[in-house]
Amino acid sequence: MRLFDPHIHMTSRTTDDYAAMRAAGVRALVEPSFWLGQPRTSVGSFVDYFDALIGWEPFRAAQFGISHHCAVALNPKEANDPRCREVLDLLPRYLVKDRVVAVGEIGYDSMTPEEDTAFAAQLALAVRHDLPVLVHTPHRDKASGTRRTLDVVRESGIAPERVVVDHLNELTVAAVLDAGCWAGFSVYPQTKMDEHRMVTLLREYGLERILVNSAADWGRSDPLKTRATADTMLASGFTTADVERVMWHNPVAFYGQSGRLDLTGPAPDIGESHEGNSIERGPRPAARTAAG
Amino acid sequence: MIDALHDTLAARLPAPQWERLGQWRRRVSESPHDVREFFPRAGREIGRGDLVGPAETGHPCRGWRTDDAARTLLLAALPQRGDDLVAELRWLYETGDAAERHAVLRSLDPLDLRADTDTLDGALPLVHDALRANDLRMVTAAVGDYTARHLPAPAWRHAVLKCVFTGIPLSAVSGLDERADPELLRMLNDFAAERTAAGRAVPPDVATFLRAHPAP
């Protein structure tokens, strides 16, 4: 089984997670930029974070045969902090990088005027850089926040099929699909969405323009929820082709709109050749680091 | 080396990509700041992957990736020399993703060897940065000929030791036989003793090297 997790924060996960994901079938993922639990107090913290997303984290993922791409943005929560707002000026530098396949996560947290400004500015950046967008919907006041999100997306002029609106549920999915956007679902151990509800939604709404992710991060979450959803689909009568469609072809189609998705091998971009031997080819011990 | 990269890319890139690289090089020679626009795009718009096949023994560009070679030609087209060139290399490295940083590191040797320029030893801080990285691609790119020529002995010995610790083959380290000194041999012998005491294997290339260089 081949899985693509279209939204997971690997920076917060361990090498054990990478090993378990690989064993479960995960071969590719996209790591959107988000907040880190602890608020950042300067633009420099974002520079280091973004640099890790286009440097260290793809290397870490490749050690487990997983292709890592990312989305870069100022997240809605920290868009409210005046110390972080200059991050918007920094983004163009990152939006031209090879492994940056989207702008995200952007959207609303508390629906403040500051969030309005950052959201609109970053939608414009996505249009300018010809990149798809990953939009986070607020956890509080979600239905109203989702409606407003779709209004802002419409006003921005971006093509709706280049936008995924994420963290949806039974009450928000219809409006997003009707608007022509992709619908993202974050399958969580307790909150957001679970795999059984997810399968019910797939029956009702079909497989087109649906993305299923684990959105695993530093909180209580599970990087194997993509696999759990795939298993639940099969147990509920969906075919392996259906699973492949939702869990692989859909994310490839969505992020492929960037023109930068590189899935040429299980571990692309890795493997410095020396005398014809690649030091990164084949499995590497999970715990091996530069500390030996 | 730059001539070899030029001729190999000319022969092996598809015509549209070679043409585009030519346009970029002309732009950069007249308007150096534009290198910052082209440098990140070189992988996806010019080419990636090995420039020379593993079977082509003796080819002067062996071990070069197409994106590294293309970026090196771009840097070679810059009009700056000396400290001004180093400043631009530093900007591109510090704002680069892994592939761009790799290319800057790979470019140091050919740029340093150009006949029309002073030595580029001012770029050593980039090598130090790469040697502190945990990303083995960076460490590997940082133990090339430029480093062999310029890195002071204490840092160079630790670079060799880091390769040994992280599984980068000693064959990747430029100038190893020429620069190996008694202190490096002591460090490698201590490493081998530590591994043996722990019941772990000494990597075969290290064992071979130590047999060929008996401790004084």
Automatic annotation (TrEMBL), chain A:
Ranges of biased composition (kind: Basic and acidic residues): 271-283
Single GO molecular function: hydrolase activity
UniProt keyword annotation of Hydrolase present: yes
Region span, Disordered: 264-292
Keywords per UniProt: Hydrolase, Metal-binding
UniProt xrefs under Gene3D superfamilies: Metal-dependent hydrolases
Family of the protein in this entry: Belongs to the metallo-dependent hydrolases superfamily.
Record protein name field: TatD family hydrolase
Source organism (scientific name): Streptantibioticus parmotrematis
Lineage: Bacteria, Bacillati, Actinomycetota, Actinomycetes, Kitasatosporales
From TrEMBL, chain B:
InterPro entries (UniProt xref): EboA_dom
Superkingdom of the source species: Bacteria
NCBIfam families, A to Z: EboA_domain (NF035938)
Protein name (Swiss-Prot/TrEMBL): EboA domain-containing protein
Organism: Streptantibioticus parmotrematis
Lineage: Bacteria, Bacillati, Actinomycetota, Actinomycetes, Kitasatosporales
